[in-house]
């Protein structure tokens, strides 16, 4: 592209970065980019800028694909880390290893846009956090700027379902009304189930949230769940 712009044409003051969003509909898919414009002093010799005085400013354009922040919440040992591991690496481990602090996993997501069906590609940063209540006071900022939330409970432990409301309040108080879905996990443990679908539906309906019955162990509905929240996020990009 040979177009030449001066900093003023672009509304950029020298030295001040200006950033904005650009949605590009390429031939077959949509990519969302964050663009940053910087002006920097001319580095070449005087001859390079035809003897102009003062030397022109150079404009540097930095384009990077938008990263969305997807957070998980829910009580300890409900399967948050296992769901991420199943989705990102397609693995499952029976051993329980508490998540200490936070862990962020990057995943490129591709799906069709829920409104117009065009293929969408986003970079998703998946934030996993310890579910044990004792650690909650350390993480009020964890959910800041989240684009989406996955609330997880364990179908075999009723108290993890009732605790979802506390989690919802905690997250929404700290980061606003983040679009959320509920995952009823460990559906493979059929005989140990203590929470049933009508209660889950009634809870989710009261906040306009969708829910899915999942199993990190068998993989049931795991990809569908992440793709579903990805689609909800893409509507807000
Ligand atoms: N049967 C069965 N076990 C599961 C499932 N998902 C997770 N588990 C097991 O449940 C235990 C806890 O799983 P984690 O993924 O570590 O739970 P977590 O929610 O990340 O726990 P914290 O990090 O403490 O918040 C582990 O032993 C997992 O193997 C599932 O879908 N079915
Ligand atoms: Mg964990």
Layout of helices and strands:
Blueprint: E1 18-25, E2 30-40, E3 58-65, E4 67-73, H1 80-89, E5 102-112, E6 119-129, E7 148-154, H2 158-162, H3 164-175, E8 180-185, H4 197-205, E9 210-213, H5 222-235
Parallel strand pairs: 2-6, 4-6, 4-7, 7-8, 8-9
Antiparallel strand pairs: 1-2, 2-3, 5-6
Question: What would you note in describing this structure?
Answer:
The protein has helices at residues 80-89, 158-162, 164-175, 197-205, 222-235, and strands at residues 18-25, 30-40, 58-65, 67-73, 102-112, 119-129, 148-154, 180-185, 210-213. The two termini are 27 Å apart. Helices cover 21% and strands 31% of the residues. It is built from five helices and nine strands; from the N terminus they run ββββαβββααβαβα. The relative contact order is 0.16. The longest helix is centred in the C-terminal third of the chain and has 14 residues, at 222-235. It folds into two domains: 18-65, no CATH class; 66-234, Rossmann fold (3-Layer(aba) Sandwich). Strands 1, 2, 3, 4, 5, 6, 7, 8 and 9 form a nine-stranded mixed β-sheet that branches. It is α/β, with parallel strands linked by helices and 237 residues long. Mean pLDDT is 82; it is low at 1-5 and 26-30. The structure holds guanosine-5'-triphosphate (GTP) and magnesium ion (MG).
